[in-house]
Amino acid sequence: MSAMGSLVIDMMSYEAGELDSDDSLDLFSDLIKSGMAWKLQGHWGRTAKALIDRGMIDEESGDITPLVLEVDWL
Protein backbone atom coordinates (compact mmCIF):
# COMPACT_ATOMS: atom_id res chain seq x y z
CA MET A 1 0.00 0.00 0.00
CA SER A 2 1.21 3.50 -0.76
CA ALA A 3 2.09 5.98 1.97
CA MET A 4 -0.95 8.04 0.93
CA GLY A 5 -3.22 5.02 1.24
CA SER A 6 -1.89 4.29 4.71
CA LEU A 7 -2.42 7.92 5.72
CA VAL A 8 -6.03 7.81 4.52
CA ILE A 9 -6.67 4.63 6.51
CA ASP A 10 -5.16 6.28 9.61
CA MET A 11 -7.38 9.35 9.09
CA MET A 12 -10.46 7.16 8.83
CA SER A 13 -9.44 5.27 11.96
CA TYR A 14 -8.93 8.58 13.78
CA GLU A 15 -12.38 9.79 12.75
CA ALA A 16 -13.88 6.50 13.97
CA GLY A 17 -12.17 6.94 17.35
CA GLU A 18 -10.00 3.87 16.82
CA LEU A 19 -6.57 5.47 17.38
CA ASP A 20 -4.96 5.83 20.77
CA SER A 21 -3.27 9.09 21.76
CA ASP A 22 0.17 8.04 20.48
CA ASP A 23 -1.18 6.95 17.10
CA SER A 24 -3.20 10.16 16.83
CA LEU A 25 -0.09 12.23 17.53
CA ASP A 26 1.83 10.25 14.89
CA LEU A 27 -0.97 10.90 12.41
CA PHE A 28 -0.95 14.65 13.00
CA SER A 29 2.83 14.70 12.80
CA ASP A 30 2.60 13.05 9.37
CA LEU A 31 -0.13 15.46 8.26
CA ILE A 32 1.98 18.46 9.28
CA LYS A 33 5.12 17.07 7.61
CA SER A 34 3.25 16.50 4.36
CA GLY A 35 1.46 19.86 4.48
CA MET A 36 -1.90 18.11 4.27
CA ALA A 37 -3.00 19.38 7.70
CA TRP A 38 -3.43 22.84 6.17
CA LYS A 39 -5.33 21.66 3.08
CA LEU A 40 -7.97 19.48 4.75
CA GLN A 41 -11.28 20.40 6.35
CA GLY A 42 -11.02 22.76 9.33
CA HIS A 43 -10.80 20.24 12.19
CA TRP A 44 -7.54 18.82 10.90
CA GLY A 45 -5.78 22.18 10.68
CA ARG A 46 -7.17 23.41 13.99
CA THR A 47 -6.08 20.25 15.78
CA ALA A 48 -2.63 20.35 14.16
CA LYS A 49 -2.25 24.00 15.21
CA ALA A 50 -3.36 23.18 18.77
CA LEU A 51 -0.73 20.42 18.99
CA ILE A 52 1.91 22.86 17.74
CA ASP A 53 0.77 25.57 20.16
CA ARG A 54 0.97 23.09 23.06
CA GLY A 55 4.55 22.28 22.10
CA MET A 56 3.75 18.70 21.22
CA ILE A 57 4.76 18.90 17.56
CA ASP A 58 7.45 21.14 16.06
CA GLU A 59 5.89 23.53 13.56
CA GLU A 60 8.85 23.58 11.17
CA SER A 61 9.76 19.91 11.02
CA GLY A 62 6.47 18.28 12.01
CA ASP A 63 8.40 16.08 14.42
CA ILE A 64 6.94 15.10 17.77
CA THR A 65 8.87 17.04 20.41
CA PRO A 66 11.25 15.16 22.73
CA LEU A 67 9.28 16.15 25.83
CA VAL A 68 6.14 14.47 24.50
CA LEU A 69 8.08 11.32 23.73
CA GLU A 70 9.03 11.09 27.43
CA VAL A 71 5.59 11.58 29.03
CA ASP A 72 2.08 10.21 28.69
CA TRP A 73 0.30 13.26 27.25
CA LEU A 74 -3.28 12.12 27.57
What does this protein structure show overall?
The chain has helices at residues 3-15, 21-34, 42-53, 66-70. It has 4 helices and no strands. 59% of the residues lie in helices and 0% in strands. The longest helix is centred in the middle third of the chain and has 14 residues, at 21-34. The radius of gyration is 12 Å and the shape is globular. By secondary structure, it is mostly helical.
Overall pLDDT confidence: 90
Count of the domains = 1
Q: What radius of gyration results from the CA coordinates?
A: 12 Å
User: pLDDT below 50 for ≥5 consecutive residues: which ranges?
Assistant: none
Structural class: mainly alpha
Could you give a short account of the major beta sheet?
none
What's the N-to-C terminus distance? 30 Å
Q: Strand-residue fraction?
A: under 5%
The shape, in one word, is: globular
Annotation, overall tally of beta strands: 0
What oligomeric assembly is this protein in? Answer: single chain
Total of DSSP H or I helical runs spanning 4+ residues: 4
Helix content: 55-70%
Order of SSEs, N→C?
A: HHHH
